[in-house]
Specification:
homodimer, about 475 residues, alpha+beta, Rossmann fold, 11-stranded mixed β-sheet, 5-stranded mixed β-sheet
Chain lengths: ~475, ~475
């Protein structure tokens, strides 16, 4: 009845086929499953629980900084959607459209929200009258639909879970500050929870959000050398506000349009976490986002006293606030080791008859396999230290990989070589769209961002494409 | 610039027009707003925060009892939806249907989920193979769409937020136990959080969920004498499992179909809370669901030291874990009193120069207007006691109203009189559909439930409609 094979053998090795490795892990760690709705996935309990950890962190940060949650309709009348021209052009090709309600054909078709700027603006138009009503700092947790042809679990899907912040401000400065502040919150999430170092910067005009004046992003580098955009914040100026007739009486008693931002991260962060940290044995979850931080596995569980002792140990970890699972099923310890390695649980606790005799347990760290013996008296404190260490080690490893994969390039040949190696090609750029398009055409790489750190490249002050004087530093990479 | 009018004047009085009072409160307490999408509302921050409190309570209860959260697609292929016949007949008339994706016409239309039984079954069919995979105890937090013609905020809408539990079990008994257990969780929510006494019971076959073998419900009684169904749990037997080919190897090694339940409550609970407790001054929120439990209002705030003292007081309440707001704006104290009465905040704290001198504050209870002077040293402890008292008083008041509005009836004349008075007509019933239909036809009342307490009616053992011997006790009422 039991499946005693070493499960990990069933995952493709990263170096054989990274894309297949990724899909294997998503499926076999039971993070998701495919549904009967093409392009739509099922977020299974283990995958959804990762999202809940991300939500817990962000929701707290949002509320601490004065943001309030709201919920807007999941559909947008086509007539309303068309009000901001650039925006509709950007999204129209990937909309799912409802045309029937009950037995009626709908006159005004309903677009399943791909994002909710227009709904927020429509509402803000009604409730913002005076500078006293500002700022409005709203956030929404929901799912959105993008009718994508090619989908990959968590990375690109017809429907994904996200949060979308939408804020309105009295003046440009405050809105610009908000745009950058929320990018910092996302960056903190990466550093403190996901153990992912993000590259932060501004998007080029070509890559910015439809309708935004400026878009900022956090980008993460995957082990296959491709970049993954993990979150964006947008500054809209007063463009939408004008299109939707949002006006308020300012402190001088005059009517004016408010200034707007929006920002979002999605379940794509789960995909980033899987790829950045995973290995050939499966998932490796950073401790602070792991739904289960410690798994307790009794060894020689049939010996008297082992299971009760294991349960007691698990209870102590639970009581200390850790997220703990005990597997005292009749499966073999070997099967369990593989299974929870696959599931990426940061810390395994083993204990057998001899450990119990000695009053000790064994910790095994998922990230590097290291084993640590520890007395039961000290195990709770030690677990906290080890989880912190694991997080730090995982973050540092990701930082080293990132640092090793930013290559400064001065000409097209170096650009090619850098992209061939994988990672970011960091170069000077004249700033013109033609050169950006040219690189895309030649290499299929895109400008990921103009990093906040604009420290120049030694020995280079011209654009590698046109040869003109260049003052901007830009990161190019192939991307998901 | 200031709106100094007593805001409450702008709410219709309950006795003048209860329905208008309800709408006024929903709008003016800023719980919701209408959107540009017909029938869809906007859940504003204050309304959404009530839902978050309900979520916090339920999510904890679900997880403690072994349930896991998942997320399924928001659309269901029409072909899949049709697999369980009764189910599709029940829901088809109120479905929103997507027929276009991007620029394509969809061959298989997509139904925006009105409920997700079929998606869960489709998934369970893939992942349930052995009795070892059971039970599956899944829950989903999401929104669903019902294409309703007549909508009312929170009570009936084209889209509402809810949770839907979907579980699969090895045997009938376990599934039946789950069905009743989750009803108890909802009942606890009413008693402990919403201060609403629910009437619990089984639905008649006429009123049960499309596709269920048995439906149980919690019903609340509104001040206009109408009942509101506030949540349901369903026992499906193995009907869906057969329709979807879900089979598992049981402990005897034979293939069989598992037994299923589903259960849900929605943002309709917000509507119930508004109606059960509200008064002519607006909302009256039960303390444990109130997004703000204590509002601190400085009196004679222009006097030196008052605002700092008020802030200090607010901080102390916050530090003790209460949900606190301080309004130290330059609006008048009178305006603030009205405003936060309208918003139903359970406990108001006032303090002015003389209170500060005496080292005291004044509590005012929203539910009955009572004022209590309290020394600053004791105020934190006192606040906890008062919130508990307020909850208890509100719950008891609602219980008294309910008890006063259950009328035992023996014939159709008494039934009429009872419904005229408002509330439940409690009667014996032969159990046949014809008599149930007849009452609906004559009085427009529906069978709310066969209450768990089946204690008979003295002096009555026949059905008031057909005069035949009757052994079932049933509650009829007009309903939302």
């Amino acid at each position: 009845m039991e499946n005693n094979q070493i499960k990990n053998n069933s995952i493709t090795r990263q170096e054989d086929d990274f894309a297949q490795w990724y899909t294997d892990v998503c499926k076999k760690a039971e993070l998701m499953d495919y549904s009967s709705v093409k392009g739509f996935i099922i977020y299974r309990p283990y995958g959804y629980a990762i999202w809940e950890q991300i939500q817990n962190y962000l929701d707290k940060r949002f509320k601490e900084s004065g943001h309030e949650n709201v919920y807007m309709p999941m559909v947008i009348p086509a007539s309303l959607f068309q009000r901001e021209k650039e925006h509709v052009e950007g999204f129209a090709p990937e909309c799912l459209i409802a045309t029937k309600g009950g037995s009626e054909d709908l006159e005004d078709h309903l677009i399943v929200r791909p994002t909710s700027e227009v709904l927020f603006c429509d509402h803000y138009q009604k409730i913002i009258k005076s500078y006293r009503d500002l700022p409005k700092l709203y956030n929404q947790w929901c799912s959105v639909v993008r009718w994508e042809k090619t989908t990959r679990p968590f990375l690109r899907g017809a429907e994904f879970l996200w949060q979308e912040g939408h804020t309105m401000h009295e003046n440009e400065e405050e809105a610009r500050t908000e745009t950058l502040k929320m990018l910092e919150v996302y960056d903190d999430l990466g550093r403190d929870i996901l153990a992912i170092p993000f590259s932060k910067g501004r998007k080029t005009d070509k890559e910015k959000f439809s309708g935004a004046l400026e878009t900022y992003s956090i980008e993460a580098l995957m082990p296959d050398g491709k970049a993954l955009q993990c979150g964006t914040t947008h500054y809209f100026g007063d463009g939408f506000a004008r299109a939707f007739g949002i006006q308020f009486q300012n402190r001088e008693g005059k009517l004016q349009n408010p200034f707007q931002t929006s920002w979002g991260v999605s379940t794509r962060l789960i995909g980033a976490t899987i790829m950045v940290h995973g290995d050939d044995n499966g998932l490796v979850l950073p401790p602070y986002v792991a739904p289960i931080q410690i798994v307790v596995i009794p060894v020689a569980a049939n010996k008297p006293g082992v299971i009760p002792a294991a349960r007691e140990v698990a209870e102590k970890f639970k009581a200390a606030g850790f997220r703990v699972k005990i597997d005292d099923s009749d499966k073999t310890a070997g099967w369990k080791f593989s299974e929870y390695e696959m599931k990426g649980i940061p810390l395994r606790v083993e204990l057998g008859p001899r450990d119990i005799e000695k009053g000790q347990i064994v910790f095994a760290k998922r990230n590097d396999g290291q084993k640590i013996f520890c007395s039961m008296d000290e195990m709770v404190e030690k677990a906290g230290e080890l989880l912190k260490t694991i997080h730090q080690e995982m973050y540092e490893k990701a930082c080293r990989y990132l640092a090793d994969h930013v290559t400064e390039v001065k000409d097209l040949k170096e650009l090619d070589a850098a992209l061939e190696k994988g990672g970011y090609a960091k170069m000077m750029w004249c700033g013109c769209r033609e050169c950006e398009d040219k690189i895309k055409e030649l290499t299929n790489a895109t400008a990921r961002c103009l990093p906040f750190n604009q420290m120049g490249i030694e020995g280079s002050d011209t654009c590698p494409v046109c040869g003109k004087k260049a003052t901007k530093v830009v990161l190019f990479a192939k991307a998901y």
